[in-house]
Amino acid sequence: MTETIEIPETDAPNSFAELMLAPELLRAVEDAGYTTPTPIQARAIPLILNGRDIMGLAQTGTGKTAAFTLPIVQRLLGGPRRARALILTPTRELAVQVKESFARYAIHSGLEIAVVYGGVPLGPQETALRGGVDVIVATPGRLLDHMERQNVAFDDLEVLVLDEADRMLDMGFAPQLNRIVADIPKYRQTLL
Ligand code: AMP
Questions:
Q1: Edge-to-edge, what's the strand order for the sheet holding 85-88?
Q2: Confidence of residue 61 (pLDDT cuts 50, 70, 90)
Q3: Contact 134, 85 (CB under 8 A)
């Protein structure tokens, strides 16, 4: 079950170090030139690091992507190279942006990140997936194609993110989302 928690703005941490991010992440944040967490980052990062399921509501431009990307990278540090985090997005453009975010924040963390979306050949995506990845950013239809071809297995999945879940539902992706969710572990962290 997902709980909703209100955290008073005044208690929100105002540095990334206070958010208990690992040195690899603090260096990446510094490289990106960020000095202060945005409100959604200050509130969401500690909860996500604690393994909570959360639903975050924020406009674009508020630092929402880093709010889930940073703690996911931290959670995956040092683990086996298996598909352990899956981020579903409604569009190819958003998938590419989220992938770039992961690449930026994981720069000192040695994680492999793949992005898969429709409208382009399957081959290069298949090669990337079969080569072993830690994080997959995907649009739902193309991910299902890869799952059906057994290009990817989610036995080790730890975190599922539905980015812009409302838009995915508006775009009619509910059947694909249901099929994906039916095929991944039940015991996982879920972020909306
Ligand atoms: P988003 O809402 O996640 O798409 O982020 C919007 C923009 O804000 C992106 O270009 C980020 O690079 C940038 N950004 C994210 N977090 C911070 C931060 N704490 N300080 C300054 N810029 C940030």
A1: 113-116, 135-138, 85-88, 159-162, 189-191
A2: confident
A3: yes
Predicted pLDDT of residue 60: 80
- Longest distance between any two alpha carbons in the chain, whole Å: 50
Task: Give distance in angstroms: CA of 62 to centre of ligand 1.
Answer: 6
State how far the Cα of 166 lies from the Cα of 145, in Å rounded to an integer.
Answer: 23
- Ligand 1 centre distance from Cα of residue 183 (Å): 33
Mean pLDDT, the chain, as a whole number?
Answer: 93
Which positions ≥6 away from 99 have C-beta within 8 Å? Answer: 113, 114, 115, 137
Distance 8 CA to ligand 1 centre (A): 21
Task: Looking at the CA of residue 59, tell me the nearest atom of ligand 1.
Answer: 2
pLDDT in tens, 82-131: 999 999 999 999 999 999 999 999 999 999 999 999 999 999 999 999 99
DSSP 86: E
Across the range 163-168, mean pLDDT stands at 95
